[in-house]
Structure to design on (105 residues):
């Protein structure tokens, strides 16, 4: 702290308060860094989950298409469900890309 205009040092209480506030500010800064790292880890986990969901939906669509070939009586319904699964997979891949996971799984 700067000396006072009267040439004396600041009162001990002011020095203690300044030190306390500096310690608190450092603790808040560390907590903010920890939260940022956690946010990034959660975003990565969400992106991985979105990619996994998209891959699963794509496999489901392929299976439904195969079933549609072997069960002509249910073919229209199965192909519609396969199309919906592919659309869902596409949306999940978009979500993964938005979360910064645009690399293929």
């Amino acid at each position: 702290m700067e000396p006072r205009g009267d040439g004396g040092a600041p009162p001990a209480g002011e020095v203690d308060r300044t030190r306390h506030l500096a310690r608190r500010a450092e603790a808040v800064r560390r907590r903010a860094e920890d939260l940022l790292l956690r946010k990034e880890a959660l975003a990565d986990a969400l992106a991985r989950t979105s990619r996994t969901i998209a891959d699963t939906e794509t496999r489901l669509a392929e299976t439904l298409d195969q079933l549609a070939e072997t069960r002509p009586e249910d073919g229209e319904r199965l192909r519609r469900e396969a199309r919906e699964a592919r659309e869902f997979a596409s949306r999940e891949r978009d979500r993964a890309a938005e979360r910064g996971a645009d690399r293929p799984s």
